[in-house]
Amino acid sequence: MAVLTEEQSMLRDAAKSWVQEKSPVTAFRKMRDSGVEVGFDAAAWNEQAEMGWAGVIIPEDFGGSNFGYLSMGLILEEMGRTLTASPLLASGLAAASALILGGSDAQKGEWLPKIADGSLVATLAVDEGAHHAPAKVAATAAKSGSSYKITGKKTFVIEGPAAGLFVVSARTSGKPGDTDGISLFLVKADAAGVTKQNLKLADCRGVSNVSFDGAEGELLGEEGKGWPVLEGTLDRARAGVAAEMLGAALQAFDVTLEYLKTRVQFGQVIGSFQALQHRAAKMFTDLELSRSAVEAALQAIDAGSPDVPELVSLAKAKMGDTLHLVSNEMVQMHGGIGMTDAHDAGFYLKRARSLEAAFGSQAFHRDRYARIQGY
Amino acid sequence: MADFGGDLDAFRGEVRDWVEANFPAALKGKPNPMMREERGNPPTPDQEAWRKAVGAKGWGTPTWPAQYGGGGLTPAQGRIVQQEFTRAGAYNPIGGMGVMMFGPTLLEYGTEDQKMEHIPPICRGDLQWCQGFSEPGAGSDLASLQTRAEDKGDHYLINGQKIWTSGAQWADWCFCLVRTDTSKKHEGISFVLFTMRQPGVEVRPIKLIAGNSPFCETFLTDARAEKKDLVGPLNGGWTIAKRLLQHERSGLAGGGGFGPAKSLSQFAKEYVGLDEAGRLADSDLRTRIVQNEIEGRAFQQTAVRAMLESKSNAGPSAATSIMKNAGTRMMQDRAELILEVMGHQGLGWEGSDFTAEELGAVRGWLGGKATTIYGGSQEVQSNIISKRILGLPDLTQSK
Asked: How far, in Å, CA of A154 to CA of A30, rounded?
């Protein structure tokens, strides 16, 4: 664990105790069983917002506390432990980052306070296919008076069902794959021409495919030059996802370790078998390495360091491999009970795959890391 | 120690002036001769002068207590000394097993007399130490060692064989585990010190697969260790040995310095080349290279984190326990990838058909295989993590 400031320690402790008391995995199970379409518990989200979590990266002038990305990561890590379903990442981190990086003062003043107090869920609508590929933008924006008409389809929009505002990538020039010509737009979910198709996913979170058919969009940043803001926003979102993954992996490991110490077969606890011990040691090793990578990425964002892109891709790739390993081992080491819906192991396995895919898989980030290194 | 009143800038200035006045220009950028196999060769006058100057100052062991010949500096000041040496292109001439392993252990467990006798020559670089731990029948199961020490009144008579004794052919003294009670395993081991310059000690270097001989067999036939050189209580050597191995493992975690300094991807760019999209021309290799580079970077990040954590918590971080396995695994993969990248040029043993870098890569690949075996094998490290850190139990006899 990184060396924390007093402020960060308090925030982490508050998150830890709230998550354990108010949002254990049973809360997620209850939400899932109730079939809530938005994919999170609204009352729990209100509590998170009241504690100020949605405003952690938002400047004080716009209703936040400006505690930074490592602080946000600490909260997401704790929430990841118990699979707390929340729009915090999509809204309080990703969409808020887009506004902070690219928004005018007027746009920040209009939207950030609503994100910070939790009354608005905003989210990114940036992917168009089965894979994260932020430059492959086919959606178009046509200037119309002082605003733009957005046309195109966006896939896998996280928290789409609850979203009141989308940050949409669309192009005014060029072709899919070009980074030039991409702009970001703010599109209200209730604007004419916006259609949500809510998805039913294995991990039961709220995700939508969204169609924009001449929907009115307000330019965020400069026309045709939205790529740096989009990349900066995505890197912040990826670091946040990695923090949530760290929490999920740590908890999956802890639960599995506990099982190894209690499950008896052949007259002894199975954790005394060296074949399992060494696999546990490997997981622990990878978790330690992953924690370092995730914290370094969040700290680099806070420090405004120029190596944010490579550190973020490093963290998402390493953390992805580790979560993949731990979530698979959780099921395998639990044996039959891990295959049952009554056990939590399946929740971690399903959530792991969604998190791995979110804003770039391990393959995406390994490729990106290599490109940044010039090979 | 001098009082710098916490003014590190003033201290830095003093170190810089001193290095400028004392570091022989001819040694600038040169590696530490003691870290190389040629250390059997006599040192040059410049090397001798630099060792003596640093040794007299105690700055080769900057944070060790001044009363035993160390620098008596704070960790922050110690880092400044290191930084100023690096800045001037100067190596630290004080090193070896005495500094890395034995010294810290004796400072913790030795008597005042033992520390006064043995620590100052380490700080001055006057005497080199070797480690008499492993035996032919006691590798990973170190505590099964059989070398006997017999009580002869004022001394112990030692008989047995040690193996994998690093640098025994150049060492002046040995810190050694011996059996002083055959009725118990761990509780029958004692930690003794003796000079290598005596008739009962015979050393035979072992040629390794990389072609070099960094390790020796050490035969002990009626060798003599003085009673005053028993460290810790009789039959209490195992606790000390475990502590010493922690110092060893933290020193080995970087992969033991095997392999070239150039980055793996740099080698790949040179030998494999890039395609028109700017990617490495071999996509399978590219994937494995980037995985290794990411692993290496995460390892470095963890080393930094463990250091910051242990400073702030005043105790070792749990991250420390993973460093040996993670570091050696990553370095071995890296060494293999470098050979693969070099292709046929990565198969040379000697001769002018291969560059020094290519030959070095082959030797480094082979030499590096030792890193997951010595200092506690990969499997022993995994046992330690699972038992001490994760709290998993020992196997009991099944019924």
From this structure: 30
